[in-house]
Structure formats: structure tokens, C-alpha cells
Write a structure and sequence with these properties.
Elements lengths: L16 H20 L3 E2 L5 E3 H8 L4 H6 L2 E3 L5 E4 L4 H10 L9 E10 L11 E10 L4 H17 L5 E6 L6 H14 L6 H9 L13 H5 L10 H16 L5 E2 L11 E8 L8 E7 L3 H4 L7 E7 H6 L3 H5 L7 E5 L2 H17 L3 E2 L7 H10 L4 E5 L1 H6 L2 E5 L4 E5 L1 H16 L2
Parallel strand pairs: 1-5, 7-8, 12-13, 12-14
Antiparallel strand pairs: 2-4, 3-4, 5-6, 6-11, 7-9, 9-10, 10-11, 14-15, 15-16
Helix pairs in contact: 1-5, 5-9
The chain binds histidyl-adenosine monophosphate.
The site of histidyl-adenosine monophosphate has 27 residues, from strand 6, strand 10, strand 11 and helix 11.
């Protein structure tokens, strides 16, 4: 077999069983916290018509211009793996006439996204997002509530984070700002990198996000969007901040915060975290009141965010990661073939009662089975030999303090069930 068949593609990886526990912690915390805020899960397809993304996210963005996995299916239609899920959620909202439902649509999603990005720490070509969207309201309190939910979620996972916000204006004030930006950029073409020179024409807002050292002096002197906001955007931004302050949420206004997707209007935000290094954006989001119309639907205001799950798991404290681990409650060590078959039966009946049991065929000596019990982190070991079976009395060793006592299967059942119910109370 070729070597390449035994290796994952660049930018993709296996999430191994020992790592998945941490992912479960995060996914379960999201479901718990988000449902308190009235969000329900939605699952949309992993691929959609390419045009949904090229129109929704914007043809001039890096995502659409360079990073989509696009192919033609058997019918010749252009299809892309989803690089994000907001466009899909808005499509689903329109397709299923969710505006007819009671109240606003509050939905969250968890799943893989695909972007053909340059390889870098913290950037994957298949990565995972947890995101949430609220559709149907342009009230600025939505921003504060959703941001509060996100920060609360991170707090439950003991992850420290900083909130950065900005207003990127809307259709009535942004064109004026972009014209002013382009005017300034045109005067400094000689000092800009190739990408920024190109962006001066195609997407001047993206220049604000450039990380190239030599562009920084020009960027620092560019006009600020805050000075170009129309009355309605300025007022909306004020109200968002008022609600954030009411909720006791600290924020930093970053006038140059622009996002890599074109659908944003008014509020844009990011949550960054220290442990992440250069790719420090953990969460990105904002308001996208025009997206439904861009996709051919009626006007549906929306606000939401997505967070990088890969990045979140990277910085999750070890004690929090550990909460997702569920080592076996009972390891069955057996001596001989007859005892093995009996041990299988004991494991079967305990498993049906809800107790997790571990045993392998060909277990070897008692000593090597004890070593394995230790390796798999079993809480207790039951020793099953022919004598023990005849007497219905079995040595039970508690691994945490190596104490051993003899029990009948009935006593063991009582003991294990009391332990598991005690554990699930936590
Ligand atoms: P985004 O900023 O493109 O926004 O992505 C959100 C987050 O996904 C980033 O902050 C980062 O943590 C993670 N992420 C993005 N690309 C990668 C990658 N290549 N590898 C690892 N993690 C990555 C959106 O996707 C918008 N749909 C967010 C949104 C929802 N806006 C409104 N609603």
C-alpha cells in the first residue's frame, strides 16, 4: 500500500479516542448553555450549491476566492463543501418558512467546515465550529444577549477571553467610508503589499486586516469607520454597548476590526484568547441583516457567531478536559476458560444495568490483567476464578486505595449501582 494512503490529507487529522472526551465536554456544555437561552440545534448539509456561499459570503473574500472545495456533481451542478454555516442556516430559515414560527428563530449548530487554507498552527482545512444564529430581529439587545451567552459558555469551561467589538456600518454609510478608504489607499500604493494593492480595488476593508509589517504605518493613518457611521448605525452601536454594560460585560472597541465575510452590517465582534498564539480568534460573528435578501429572500435581520472548536479544545484546561473521560467502572479479571465465559455473563448483566465493564479475551495472568485494569483507569477489579464462582464470593479490589474485600454478585450490584447513581448526580 502507498504511504500516502496511510496518512491524512494536509490540513486534516484524526481526532483520536483519547482526545474526543474533551470535544464531548465542549459539545455538551454548548447544548446545555445554549438551550437555557432558547436555542435549538439545526443540522444542515455538509455541501450546498456553490452560489449559496459565493453570493452569501461575497465573491471578493478569501474564503470564496481561494479557499472553497468546489466540484461538479454528476448532474454538472457546481457544489461546494461548506466553508461556514451562516448562509446555510439562513437558507434553511427561508426554505422552511421559519418566519411563521412563534417568536424569533434561535438556532445553533456543531460540525465540520472546510477551507483550503495555508497550513499554519491553529488553521485546519477541515475544522469544526460551534455557532449560533438569531433570525428575525434587528434589536441591539440581541447582540448583547448572544455575546453574554458565548462568554458564559466559555466561563463554564474555565477559558478566559477578551471581547472586541466594532461597527462596520451598513449599505447607507459604508459606501462613503469605502470611497474615503480607497482614496487614501490610492495615495499610498507604493507602500503597500501586493495583496493590499489588489484589495484597494476589490475589497478595501480587508486592508485593515492586513498583517504585513510594512503596511502597518499606512493602515494606522487610514480613516476610521466610526467617523463615517450614519445616524442609525451609530445609534445601534451605542445601544449594543449600553446592553453590554447592563450585562456587566467588558469590551474593547477596535475600530479596525473587520471580518473576512462580506455579509456583515453594523455590529462585528471577535472573542480572542491568550493561549492561542497568532491565530488568537476563538469566536467571530456579527449582524447580517441583508443576507437573506442577497440570497433571494425577503429582508430577515440576523445576528450570530461561530467559534473554532479545534482552537477551543487546544486551550481547554486539563481538569475540564478530564470531565469527559469515562473509564470503566468494573474490570473483570478472570482465571481460565470457564471463568472467562462466566465473566462475560457477569459483564453482560452489569452492562444492562448501566455499569460500564471491561474485559478482553486472552487476558493472560492475573498480574498482567491488573496492569491493564490500571492502564484503562478502571475503578474496581472483580477477580473471577472457578473457586470464586463455586462459592459466589469474589475478591473486589478498589483501585484508588488498593483495598480488597470479598463480595457476592448481589452485593457487588448494590455497591456499583449506588456508586453510579452517586456519580450521575454530579
Ligand atoms: P469566521 O470568523 O470565518 O466566521 O470563523 C469563526 C471561527 O472559526 C474563527 O474565529 C476560528 O476560531 C474558527 N476558524 C475559522 N477558520 C478556521 C480554520 N481554518 N481552522 C480552525 N479554525 C478556524 C464565520 O465562519 C461566520 N459564519 C461566523 C458567524 C456566524 N457570523 C454570524 N454568524
Amino acid at each position: 500500500m502507498e504511504d500516502s494512503l496511510l496518512t491524512t490529507m494536509p490540513g486534516t487529522r484524526d481526532i483520536l479516542p483519547e482526545e474526543v472526551a474533551a470535544w464531548h465536554v465542549v459539545e455538551q456544555a454548548a447544548a446545555k448553555v445554549f438551550s437555557r437561552y432558547g436555542f435549538e440545534e439545526i443540522r444542515t448539509p455538509m455541501f450546498e450549491a456553490t452560489e449559496l456561499f459565493s453570493r452569501g459570503i461575497g465573491g471578493e473574500t478569501d474564503i470564496v476566492g481561494k479557499e472553497m472545495y468546489t466540484f461538479r456533481d454528476q448532474s454538472g451542478k457546481s457544489v461546494s463543501l461548506r466553508p461556514e454555516a451562516t448562509a446555510s442556516v439562513v437558507r434553511a430559515y427561508l426554505q422552511h418558512s421559519m418566519q411563521r414560527g412563534a417568536g424569533l428563530a434561535r438556532m445553533y449548530y456543531i460540525g465540520p467546515m472546510f477551507r483550503h487554507e495555508k497550513k499554519q498552527k491553529g488553521r485546519w482545512r477541515q475544522f469544526y465550529q460551534i455557532g449560533a444564529e438569531v433570525l428575525g430581529s434587528d434589536d441591539p439587545s440581541i447582540e448583547a444577549e448572544v455575546i453574554e451567552m458565548t462568554l458564559f459558555f466559555l466561563q463554564t469551561l474555565e477559558v478566559s477571553a477578551r471581547l472586541l467589538i466594532n461597527s462596520v456600518g451598513d449599505g447607507s454609510c459604508r459606501p462613503g467610508y469605502i470611497a474615503a478608504l480607497r482614496h487614501e489607499l490610492n495615495r499610498h500604493q507604493g507602500e503597500l503589499c501586493d495583496d493590499c494593492r489588489r484589495r484597494t480595488e476589490t475589497n478595501p476593508l480587508r486592508v485593515l486586516d492586513c498583517k504585513v509589517e510594512t503596511c502597518q504605518p499606512v493602515i494606522a493613518a487610514l480613516p476610521r469607520i466610526a467617523d463615517h457611521l450614519c445616524e442609525s448605525c451609530a445609534q445601534h452601536f451605542e445601544m449594543v454597548q449600553l446592553h453590554l454594560r447592563d450585562a456587566g460585560i467588558a469590551y474593547e472597541i477596535v475600530p479596525r476590526l473587520v471580518r473576512g465575510l462580506d455579509y456583515y452590517v453594523k455590529t462585528a465582534f471577535e472573542i480572542v484568547s491568550g493561549g492561542l498564539g497568532a491565530q488568537n480568534a476563538l469566536v467571530g460573528g456579527g449582524r447580517y441583516d441583508g443576507l437573506a435578501e442577497i440570497l433571494g429572500g425577503p429582508r430577515v435581520p440576523g445576528f450570530g457567531f461561530a467559534m473554532g472548536l479545534d482552537r477551543l479544545v487546544m486551550i481547554l484546561p486539563e481538569n475540564v478536559k478530564g470531565l469527559g473521560k469515562h473509564p470503566p467502572e468494573l474490570y473483570l479479571a478472570y482465571l481460565g476458560d470457564v471463568a472467562f465465559r462466566k465473566a462475560l455473563g457477569i459483564a453482560r448483566s452489569f452492562r444492562h444495568l448501566g455499569v460500564s465493564c471491561y474485559l478482553d479475551p486472552g487476558g493472560g495472568s492475573l498480574k498482567s490483567q491488573m496492569r491493564q485494569a490500571n492502564r484503562v483507569g478502571a475503578q474496581s477489579v472483580l477477580i473471577v476464578g472457578e473457586d470464586e464462582l463455586a462459592r459466589n464470593r469474589f475478591p473486589l479490589r478498589r483501585m484508588e486505595d488498593s483495598t480488597q474485600r470479598e463480595v457476592t454478585l448481589e452485593e457487588l450490584e448494590e455497591y456499583l449501582l449506588s456508586r453510579s447513581s452517586a456519580a450521575s448526580d454530579h
